[in-house]
Design goal:
The chain has 551 residues and is mostly helical. It has a domain of 108 residues: Alpha Horseshoe (Serine Threonine Protein Phosphatase 5, Tetratricopeptide repeat). The protein contains 31 helices and 6 strands. α13 packs antiparallel against α14 and α13 packs parallel to α15. Keywords: ANK repeat, Repeat. InterPro entries: Ankyrin_rpt (IPR002110), Ankyrin_rpt-contain_sf (IPR036770).
């Protein structure tokens, strides 16, 4: 019987730990996969959760009868929103390409221009996402047509990039969708995004030549509109990168301004010659393009930012806005803090860089410095007005970042400057939870010494009142010093957590498969943890040989 109970208890423990590890640990660690997040811009929807309510599931699986039955009983829930992503069932149907479901939901009163906002799995904040935006990015032409026929607005800008459905279709290289939007549905071609980039410039950057032909030939299209950072036109961009096909299309169909000047006075011909693109420069000369700047070199601002202090200074001194965004919505200050370019950071701050600018993930430069743990950069930013309590898209503060990485000195500086010790992440807890999950006893002790409650609790995923000691047993059971610090501070060693598997104690959750199990177990038991703690099935924790060793 004892062996059977031990096996059953092990299964219960592992089942629960697997459940939590899959849905919680990743979020608590909050170590963002930036590459994956950037790919989501281009390859996938920025929305990673397409709804979890019953009506979302019915829409996803085209369960027409269930949709009708549900809406008959819940007429006012046709636009029910997922609590995390803000997605409606209509958006779910648009993403999956289910035209029949789209028609049914619109017929039952769904809002064709519903704007959702939320936070995706990469910590990216978004807003103003509409059903037609989702359908356009997935390339579902029939659905886009039907939505527009029923009043969908094609000109709504979706953050964080400020893309319209046409921008997104161009970005995803949906040739047929672009043609449908422009030629059949009269989508506006020259609406700028948040950086002043219109769909034509987007097409040039993507080298989408067939799409570019469609756009520049559209009624009312202007192929000479510059973006806002450096006044770069589509022709400048094509000339700089030697894209002869785009240069020819912009001139022949789009009637581009051959001598448009970007910041610094450079014309497209200047850039083609500078980059030694002979075919492009010959073509531009033959159609009447002129030179303007002969004794200077131009680089795209993003290259200047990454190129060190000298090119960065040159760009700023020529008139580029010091707060222009470059990568993921961040500024040059974000980038240079991340790369530990000290002189560049000081230069940018002298030039008026916004020390509290938030990128697309909500991170400020102080978040970047905290993540690295460099106290000199933290002091520099704080001395220039950085908000120590700034919250990013995931609800994390700079103190959360230092707690996750175990940066003791950095955490101390933030605390000394007024950091919020109790700030709670959207999908996790306060900084003490971050330190506990990662097993950083140094930061955990620091937080405790500043009055943080050792019995702090948080809602983790869907589970309420999870104590920091419970989380520590699950994730830092191999680090007895974390458990000991909490126990010594007065943590309740008999704290429990209610799950579908039962009501589990700290001993149930302590991972057996680590070489510090006995030591952690001893700390808990000596502090008064109940050896016979019961779960819902009234099985007791099996101590096995470990209990004998401690007698």
């Amino acid at each position: 019987m004892a062996a059977e109970r031990a096996q059953q208890e092990a299964r219960l423990r592992q089942s629960f730990i697997d459940f939590v590890a899959g849905s919680i640990a990743e979020r608590l660690e909050a170590n963002l996969d930036v590459v994956g997040a950037l790919r989501s811009y281009r390859e996938k929807s920025i929305i990673t959760n397409l709804g979890t309510l019953p009506l979302h599931d019915f829409a996803r699986n085209q369960q027409m009868k269930n949709i009708k039955k549900y809406l008959s009983a819940h007429k006012n829930e046709v636009d029910c929103t997922d609590p995390d992503s803000g997605v409606t069932p209509l958006m779910t149907a648009c993403s999956y390409g289910h035209l029949k479901v789209v028609k049914l939901l619109l017929g039952r009163g769904a809002n064709v221009n519903f704007k959702c906002s939320g936070l995706n799995g990469h910590g990216l904040k978004y807003s103003n996402v509409t059903p037609v935006y989702i359908a356009a990015e997935e390339g579902h032409e029939e659905i886009v047509r039907y939505l527009v026929e029923n009043g969908a607005d094609l000109n709504v800008k979706c953050s964080p990039l400020g893309f319209t459905p046409l921008h997104r279709a161009v970005h995803c290289r949906h040739d047929d969708m672009v043609f449908t939007l422009v030629d059949d549905l009269d989508a506006t071609v020259n609406i700028p995004n948040s950086d002043g980039q219109d769909p034509i410039l987007t097409a040039v950057k993507c080298r989408a030549h067939e799409i570019l032909d469609t756009l520049v030939a559209a009624k009312g299209a202007d192929s000479s509109i510059p973006e806002t950072t450096e006044k770069v036109t589509p022709l400048h961009y094509a000339a700089y990168y030697g894209d002869l096909k785009s240069v020819e299309a912009l001139h022949a169909i789009g009637k581009a301004n051959l001598n448009a000047e970007l910041v610094g006075g450079f014309t497209p011909l200047d850039l083609a010659i500078q980059q030694k693109h002979k075919k492009v420069s010959d073509f531009l000369r033959n159609v009447g393009a002129q030179r303007n700047v002969r004794n200077s070199q131009w680089q795209p601002y993003v290259d200047c930012v990454a190129g060190g202090l000298l090119p960065l200074k040159a760009a700023i001194n020529k008139g580029v806005n010091v707060n222009a965004t470059v990568v993921r919505g961040g500024t040059a200050l974000h980038y240079n803090v991340s790369k530990l370019n000290w002189e560049a950071c000081k230069f940018l701050l002298r030039k008026g860089a916004n020390v509290n600018h938030q990128d697309h993930f909500g991170d400020t430069p102080l978040h970047k410095a905290a993540n690295i743990g460099r106290t000199d950069y933290l002091k520099l930013l704080l001395d220039n007005g950085a908000d120590v309590k700034a919250v990013n898209g995931a609800g994390s503060t700079p103190l959360h970042a230092t707690a996750k990485k175990g940066h003791y000195s950095a955490a101390k500086i933030l605390i000394d400057n007024g950091a919020d010790l109790e700030a709670v992440e959207h999908e996790g807890g306060s900084p003490i939870f971050s330190a506990a999950v990662k097993g950083h006893s140094n930061v955990l002790k620091l937080l405790l010494s500043h009055g943080v409650d050792p019995n702090s609790k948080a809602r983790i995923d869907t589970i309420d009142n999870v104590s920091v000691l419970v989380i520590s047993c699950m994730h830092s059971g191999h680090k007895p010093d974390v458990i000991k610090a909490l126990v010594n501070a007065g943590a309740d060693v008999n704290a429990r957590i209610k799950t579908e598997q039962g009501e589990l104690s700290t001993l149930h959750l302590l991972p057996v498969e680590n070489d510090k199990y006995d030591e952690s177990l001893k700390i808990l038991i000596e502090a008064g943890a109940f050896i016979d703690a019961e779960v819902k099935t009234y099985e007791t924790v099996a101590l096995g040989n470990s209990s004998k060793k401690m007698k």
